[in-house]
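Researcher: Here's the sequence for the chain we discussed earlier.
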Amino acid sequence: MLILSDPGDLYRIKEDSIRQLLTQRFMEMMEGVIEDYDPDVNGVFVLIEKGDTVTSIESNSEAWICSSPFNKVRYGEPGFVPAFEVLEEHPSCYEMVFVVGGDYGVILIIPKNEEIDGELIQFCHEYATPAPESLAA
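Model: Thanks. This is the structure I predict for it:
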């Protein structure tokens, strides 16, 4: 996984459409803000990469994907309720937003490709809503 905590990190993203989406997100978060982007206040973006599993993502990102912070029910079991705030489908990726506390959040960017964990892609396919057309990457 690639953790992006500053707009200066965007050069590290190889796929143009995902880089454009995150550029837009950083700009939206900085709109009207005088000081520099503060990841400790605003949060971080986590780009999921080949080899990242749901377990490793949950362990390293403060994002509850297939497990729950409220009970032991997991994705696929009766009574499971996802913990994300928003899960949107874009043409090239999924964008999953978790508000961890206050304004601080963790935003997972999950590329749509065969190298990404199958369970994660299935989860996204099941719960995602289409992104508004004006924001689609």
